[in-house]
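Here comes just one.
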Amino acid sequence: MKDEEFVDWNFAIAKAKANLPLLVDMVEVIMKEHFIRSKALKSYYVDRGEFREAFSSMASDLNKHPETEGHIAIELGMMLMVTGHLDTYDGIYSYIVGFN
């Protein structure tokens, strides 16, 4: 018999449920850290005057995650970019840094 056949699933499920708040907190921390690093990268592009690259990078990051895939901020940002509202340092910087 294989070891998998002797797993006490009730115990495993109870243990997982007991640790769920900790796991949720860890996921939130990881997501926040990713968000902060992502914003830092966008700020780097903005500081170099690469406004379209900053927006493209932000849109790409948003589309990578199921929770934010197809987010309205991508479409809104595209409209703002095409109409010239994100072609300045202040415009793109406030859009990216102000995004939550």
Summary: The helical segments are 9-47, 51-64, 72-82, 89-97. The CA atoms of residues 79 and 85 lie 9 Å apart.
